[in-house]
């Protein structure tokens, strides 16, 4: 997890895709850029649009969140850019508070299911 430099809150590693970039590729890149950790993407967890946010410049944004389960592949966790002020590993029972969409992804992993959570309906697809 990273402690964000803009809010000082702990969060799962997040980021924006580059133009034309696939979500799994972007996730691997963002984790490396922010933490120095190499990961592989294992599967899709959840997809949802967040509530309207307003950027410091006044832009209105509806983020589309794609939650992906990643597996550690190597490297030493460190602050690797200016988007965070700390990086840390946490046991599942000792996680700091998370935004609801991130807490949902953690809960899905801990529940052990293989389905994908879709926000519109709250529907979880059956395992395939």
Automatic annotation (TrEMBL):
InterPro entries: NUDIX_hydrolase-like_dom_sf, NUDIX_hydrolase_CS, NUDIX_hydrolase_dom. Residues 1-111 form the Nudix hydrolase domain. It comes from Paractinoplanes hotanensis. Its cofactor is Mg(2+). This is NUDIX domain-containing protein. Keywords: Hydrolase.
């Amino acid at each position: 997890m990273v402690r964000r430099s803009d809010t000082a809150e702990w969060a799962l590693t997040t980021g924006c895709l580059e133009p034309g970039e696939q979500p799994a590729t972007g996730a691997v890149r963002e984790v490396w850029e922010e933490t120095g950790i190499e990961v592989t993407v294992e599967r899709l967890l959840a997809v949802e649009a967040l509530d309207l946010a307003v950027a410091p410049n006044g832009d209105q944004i509806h983020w589309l969140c794609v939650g992906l389960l990643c597996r550690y592949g190597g490297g030493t966790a460190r602050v690797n850019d200016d988007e965070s002020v700390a990086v840390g590993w946490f046991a599942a029972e000792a996680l700091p508070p998370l935004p609801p969409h991130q807490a949902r992804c953690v809960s899905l992993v801990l529940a052990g299911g293989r389905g994908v959570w879709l926000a519109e309906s709250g529907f979880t697809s059956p395992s395939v």
